[in-house]
Amino acid sequence: MMVHNEDLGLTLSLNFPAAGDTNPMPPLVSSSPSFNFPLITTPNWSDSCPSSSDRHNVDAYKVETRSFLKGIDVNRIPAPAAEAEEEAGVSSPNSTISSISGKRNERDLPVNEIDGERSSSRGISDDEDGENSRKKLRLSKDQSAVLEESFKEHNTLNPKQKQALAKRLGLRPRQVEVWFQNRRARTKLKQTEVDCEFLKRCCENLTEENRRLQKELQELRTLKLSPQFYMQMAPPTTLTMCPSCERVGASPSEKSIDQQHNMARVTTTNQIHHRTLPFNPWSTPSGQVVQRQMSALHPRS
DNA sequence: TGTAGCAACACACTTACGTCA
DNA sequence: AATGACGTAAGTGTGTTGCTA
């Protein structure tokens, strides 16, 4: 299986998935206060992204026995180290399924077996003892393809999955872990770019809409100031409302309700200098545009 | 029951290396 | 051949979470 960079699942779309769709690339949950766009991300995206507390539990073993792609040619296999690390991580400490309270039972393992993976990420490079200190490994396309396949299934790995994947690819578990971290970062970056583009378009649309409304308002004001228009206006209307039946008598020609009910008079005549026009922004085409934009921002509302 | 210590993890940020035009 | 841009593997710092004493 050959993949190219543009095939690695980084093609994101502004299209909102249809109901029931599962976005293959859900936004990642960040524990740190990062810049995100909650209005843009669709709800089912977050539904498909488990929280950090349970992400290891449900999805972890769902695909565990999933048959990966067929054997991979490895460009480098640190066989002894890999074997040691495989033995170290099989206990799946994060799983509440395999071990109820064994989340951190890697502690029980000998030190030299525990931290072959971890030490490499915290200063004690496992390459430093060797001939290649931080020699950058370029993953083969087959390895990348397998990792991509796995990432599509679940964008995080529990230790057991990590071990299995590492063993399958002939990589160190740390390498698999790093690959998934970087992959999640790339996904998030891509999603952020898409979100920014979407918001940019929203801003442009709203700016244009605002411009149009300002223009419309100006025209209406101009129209209002013309005497011809003013003469055509109906006299101020006095509405009366019955406090008991809450009926409103609007027409001056009608027998007023207050005469019938001896009620208080509610004057809606504009007692301000600028008489407003019967203009409902939500019923105008512009309002429809705004509503469309609002519904785009809140797809479920 | 509350809490400190620890380990494991994820993420943001950065560095360093490989590839390509 | 040299070089800068770019992609990405890997290192580092920090916050969170769950377990244990």
Number of domains in the coordinates? 2
User: Strand-residue fraction?
Assistant: under 5%
> Helix fraction?
40-55%
Q: Would you list the SSEs in sequence order as H and E? A: HHHHHHHHEEHH
Query: Looking across the biggest beta sheet, what order are the strands in?
Result: 1-2
The largest sheet, given as strand count, sense and whether it forms a barrel, is:
2 strands, antiparallel
Given helix and strand content, the structural type is mainly alpha
Strand count: 2
Determine the number of helices (DSSP H or I, runs of at least 4 residues). 10
Pick out the low-confidence regions. 1-132, 250-301
From the alpha-carbon coordinates, what is the Rg to the nearest angstrom?
Answer: 33 Å
Mean pLDDT figure: 55
Task: Give the overall form.
Answer: elongated
Could you give the distance between the termini? 43 Å
How would you describe what is shown here?
The structure is a single chain. With 301 residues, the chain is mainly alpha-helical. The chain folds into two domains: 187 residues, no CATH class; 35 residues, no CATH class. It is 42% helix and 1% strand. The protein contains ten helices and two strands. It has a two-stranded antiparallel ribbon. A hairpin with a 6-residue loop joins strand 1 and strand 2. Helix 6 packs across helix 7. It is elongated, with a radius of gyration of 33 Å. 17% of the residues are buried. The N terminus and C terminus are likely disordered. It binds a DNA duplex (21 and 21 nucleotides) through helix 4 and helix 7. It comes from Tagetes erecta. Its main location: nucleus. One of its GO terms (molecular function) is sequence-specific DNA binding.
